[in-house]
Structure formats: C-alpha cells, structure tokens
Specification:
The protein has 2 domains: 159 residues, Rossmann fold; 173 residues, Glycogen Phosphorylase B (Rossmann fold). Helix content is 43%, strand content 16%. The protein has a 7-stranded parallel sheet with strand order 3-2-1-4-5-6-7, sandwiched between helices. A 6-stranded parallel sheet has the order 10-9-8-11-12-13, sandwiched between helices. Helix 8 links the parallel strand 9 and strand 10. The two termini are 12 Å apart.
C-alpha cells in the first residue's frame, strides 16, 4: 500500500512533509511505499535526494492582486488533480496527506474523487487558504498550535519535525556541537539564521551586530545561506565578536545544541526551537497569505519561550540580545517554556493517523 504526501514550496511545508515520511518508515512502511507530490521548487530536490518517489506537477497559487493568471488557475488545478488521481489509482494509494500550500487543493480533490481518506496538516497559527478550503473533506486535520485560526475542529499534535529532534538532548550533543563549529566555552553563543524568503534581512542585522558588537564578548554562529556566504565572509567583526559563518548546515540539531539564544524568522523554525528547548528572538516575516508568522511568534512569546522583534525594529537587536543572553535566569525560564509547549512526537502522530485511515 502507498501513502501520498502533498507538500511543496518553502521549507515550512517541505520538511514537515519529509518528517512524516520518516515517521512512516520508522513505523515499518517501506520507503518505496511513500509517494510525494509537489512542484519544481525545493521539493523537487529534497524528496528525490532522500530516495523517495516524487510526482512533479505544475503548481500556481491564487494571486492576491488582480491578475490575468487567476483566470487560468482552475484549469491548472484540474490538470494537477487528474495527474494526482491517476497516481493514486496506479500506486494503490491508501491515504493522502496535504501539508498546506497550493498542492493541497488538487491532492485533496483527487483523494475525494477516488474515495481515498484525506488528512491535512497546518504548520502555522493561522491556517492558509488551501487548508481552510480542504478541511471540509479531511477525515482528520492536525495543527501545530492549540488554537489555529481557520481550523476550529482540528487536533493539536504539533508541527512535524525530523527524526534527530524526536529525542533531542542538548547536554549529550553540546560538547560535540561546540567542537563542530570551532566555538569556545567561555562566552555565550548567539545563533542567527533565516528561511529561504527571509535570510537577507537577518543577514544584514547579523552583519551590523558583528561589526558593532554588544559591549561584551559574544560568539555568533551564523547560517547565511549559500548565496550570501561569500559576501558576508569578507566582513570584519568587532574585536570582542567571534563570528562563525556557514552557508548551510544539514545537521540542524547540532546548530541548536551549540546555541544559547537564536534569532530567526517565525516560520517552520518555531517547531525546532520548541523541540530543542531553545530560547529565541523571532522576527516575523510579512510574506505569506495570512501573515502567519506573526501568529506563530505571538504564541511562543505569550508562552514565555521567545521575544518578538518586528522587522521595523531590528535596529534594537543588540539591545534585546544583551537584555536576555547574559541573564542566565531568563534564558533558563525561556528554555523551560519552550520545552513545555513542544510536541516532538508530531510526525509519528500524523503518520500513525495515516496508517489508521
């Protein structure tokens, strides 16, 4: 029997989908029995690279402004639905999971046409348009937060994270993580990274921070994104700043294990931040159909696990960092709060639901 996972676009959809596939395998499903559906973006590299079958279809979302492209959108959806429906029938798919985003609509429609159980999973505190539309046909809907706008009857299981985060132990990993990145143990470590849509703004903020310093010794572990690495490597930090710059880190559990505080966007990273009990300063992006990152950041901040810093106030980043990074009591309180709202078993919960369906 085959399980189909529809996940496409940004890492916020793609990697939770990959996490569920890993959980299916952990529960005994052969890798060859997992089929991914998506477009030509990140998913087209990630899923085949991990050894999964992948059906690539044409994808296009609804334009929020008046656009002639919206006129042809129904036909794009119909074509995608037909291709997915054919795959469901040929591969004897027994359950379909939509991870939100454009691909969820044709996948859900194909599941309905073939009378295959359809489930959906929402990663943000405010559900996207696709999940809102398709929830009416889902036998079960899952959310990453206790209350998700747009999905009032969904089950809170958390946002699926990959296998290394299921049983994350900072104490066990910390020494190796410090050595991996060439860091020291005598000053705190600030982690900085941005998603595919938001790295530029956070890179600039990290650049300013490293050049100006914060008046005390500080280490910055900075994931710049491969396309920005060379230009940022040329910058010279302040004397009391140790600045480690890396384009990409595959083992993100080691990144979190090395960091005392992390500056990040408030997309899919929030699930990893809570799963690892990592205090954070969240800079919500304005992109997305619902401004969902603001809702994600709001939830972690209200729980005491994070501090929200609007993008317009990034000039205050150094002040905010010094206000908590050098306060061991506040850091410990934030770690505890993050751990209390974590749901590291989310991937297996969704995988089990697919198998039960």
């Amino acid at each position: 029997m085959t399980f189909l996972i529809a996940a496409a676009g940004t890492g916020g959809h793609v990697f939770p989908g990959l996490s569920v596939a890993e959980a299916l395998i952990d529960l005994g499903v052969p890798r060859s029995d997992v089929l991914f559906v998506g477009g030509s973006r990140l998913e087209a590299q990630v899923y085949p690279g991990e050894g999964f079958r992948f059906l690539q279809i044409e994808l296009r979302g609804l334009q929020r402004s008046l656009s002639l492209q919206n006129i042809t959108l129904p036909w794009v959806v119909v074509k995608a639905r037909r291709r997915i429906q054919k795959a469901i029938e040929e591969s004897r798919v027994r359950a379909v999971l939509g991870m939100g985003g454009y691909v969820t609509v044709p996948a859900g429609l194909a599941a309905r046409r073939t009378q295959v159980p359809f489930l959906n999973s929402e990663q943000n505190a405010e559900a996207g348009l696709a999940n809102r539309l398709m929830a009416r046909w889902a036998i079960r809907s899952f959310t990453s937060f206790p209350e998700t706008v747009g999905l009032p009857d969904a089950e809170w299981v958390g946002n699926p994270v990959r296998e290394p985060f299921w049983s994350f132990d900072r104490t066990t990993l910390h020494r190796d993580a410090i050595a991996r990145f060439g860091l020291r143990t005598d000053s705190p470590v600030l982690g900085v990274f941005g998603g595919s849509l938001g790295a530029g703004v956070l890179n600039e903020a990290a650049l300013t921070l490293a050049r100006e310093g914060v008046g005390r010794p500080l280490q910055i572990l900075h994931l710049t994104g491969d396309q920005h690495l060379n230009s940022i490597r040329a910058a010279i930090p302040a004397e009391d700043i140790r600045w480690t710059r890396i384009g990409f880190e595959e083992s993100m559990e080691m990144f979190y294990a090395a960091c005392d505080l992390v500056v990040a966007r408030a997309g899919g990273a929030v699930a990893e931040l809570t799963a690892t009990g990592t205090p954070s300063i969240l800079v919500p992006g304005e992109f997305g159909s619902t401004g969902h990152q603001k809702g994600n950041a709001r939830y972690l901040t209200r729980a005491g696990a994070a501090i929200t810093l609007p993008e317009a106030e990034l000039a205050r980043l150094g002040e905010v960092i010094t206000g908590c990074l050098f306060d061991s009591g506040q850091l410990e309180a934030m770690r505890t709060a993050a751990t209390l709202i974590a749901r590291p078993d989310a991937a297996r919960a969704v995988a089990r639901a697919m198998m039960e369906a």
